[in-house]
Amino acid sequence: MKQVTALGLFSGGLDSLLACRIISSQSIRVIALKFITPFFDYHLKENEIGYRETIREKYGLEVRVVDIGSGYLDLLKNPQHGYGKHFNPCVDCKIFMLRRAAQLLPEYNASFLFTGEVLGQRPMSQRRDTLRVIERDSGCEDILLRPLCARRLPETKPEREGLVQRDKLYGLCGRGRGGQIELAAEFGITEYPPPAGGCILTDPNLGARIEKFYTGRFHDGHRRFRVNDIRLLLVGRQFLLPQGIWLTMGRNQDENDRISRLAEKGDWILKMVERPGPTALLRKAADKLAGGSPQETETLRLAAGLVARYARKTGGRALPGEISIEGRGALHTVRAEPLQEELFAGWKI
User: 30 phi and psi, to 5 degrees?
Assistant: First the structure.
């Protein structure tokens, strides 16, 4: 008899891990789908093979990393079911991921989908009525199984067809974690992450910054929402200069390196020459400023002054310094005075 295959949404947390174990314990091949966007787990894209090997060695799971970043950025513009406490569209997020997972069923010759959702655990996305909405709007009605709380929900097609034994599923409910912890012990799972969410959109500060980007606070010269823009938005300090130019500045060497890697054609890069300091990036400056214009001169003066202000201090004071500017295919330096806090306080994002 041919082995049944199922696709599971895998966040990396305990609930999704348990759901995978429950299904695989019934001799079903489980392929765990790890969805990534610029708002959660996007760093896995840099070492997907290493991540897959780690999960296989640690938990015995077959995992696939699926980048849904581009489509997710469009979703954020106007989620049908609204936002959570901050800028997090949790219901639409789950619908979007399940819809993508359903599209992958033929690729893996899989028969159904499953998640680690627990009835009543999250007030926005795991109420009974919301679970039904997610099934309906994702197009996954009757093929979506929730192993941790299945016995509190209507029977699904994989159960009726005998692919899954319902009496080996569970009926967890509510916000408590005791049932999951006991189940983890039964499965011999001793190491797992805490239940805190890893989505940047739920962060009050970063979520607010992203919302400003979406509502037009950043006049970046184009209306397309791109993965690179969001990744840049999440690094270091952010400023909107009076000329409408977006500036990103690193706070440490790691952020400086990340900013340099995110630079694109048309961006300008500023760095300290004489002493340690931040890397700053002016997004699309070459496209917005006429070469040699007074606006360009003033933008560079202000940007260089910010770099000098946040460079390493001497005797507790920010000092003038030489700043290198790479833009329009050329490299030159200017001497900049550090800007005073009261001048740029209103530029901070």
Answer: -110, 130
